[in-house]
Amino acid sequence: MTATVSPWDIHPDLMRDRLIAIGQLFHDVRSDVSDYQMPDLGDDNYVLGTRGWAWCRTRLIAAAQTAEMPWLRILDAQRPTFAIGNRAPGDRSPRKKKCPAGSTGLFQSSPTS
């Protein structure tokens, strides 16, 4: 059996509420993008994907400039690359703990039955 490790167990800046906020931002953007999809005018999956990427990038940049997400930093606005927290890019310290042996290092929610 693999051990379950949460992101905040690995790095203190990866707090649950921050990850949920970023996930909600992406979810909302993808929902909005789908609302604008017009297949009868030629929109296809490529259009949906590229529009989604552009809108996510724009909303991430806007979110990083608000007081609501002071922990969000844009490292490269073209890719987009962002950071959660105030540490320098590539700085992985201080970690709370390392991933245990056999762990994927990914957040695994408990199964629902």
Task: Write up what this structure looks like.
There is one protein chain. The protein has a domain at 12-84. It has three helices and two strands. Residues 103-113 have low confidence and may be disordered. It has 113 residues and is mostly helical. It starts with 6 loop residues before the first helix and ends in a 29-residue tail after the last strand.
Notable characteristics:
2 strands; mainly alpha; two-stranded antiparallel ribbon; disordered C terminus; 113 residues
Describe the protein's topology.
Layout: H1 7-10, H2 16-35, H3 45-64, E1 72-76, E2 81-84
Antiparallel strand pairs: 1-2
Helix pairs in contact: 2-3
Helix and strand string, N-terminal first?
HHHEE
Oligomer state equals single chain
The fraction of residues assigned to DSSP E strands is 5-15%
Regions with little confidence, pLDDT below 50 for 5+ residues: 103-113
Helix/strand class: mainly alpha
Widest sheet, order of strands: 1-2
Helix content: 25-40%
Main sheet summary = 2 strands, antiparallel
Give Rg in angstroms. Answer: 17 Å
How many helical stretches? 3
The total of beta strands comes to 2
Overall shape: it is globular
Q: Kindly, what is the distance between the CA atoms of the first and last residues, rounded to a whole number of angstroms?
A: 19 Å
Average pLDDT value?
80
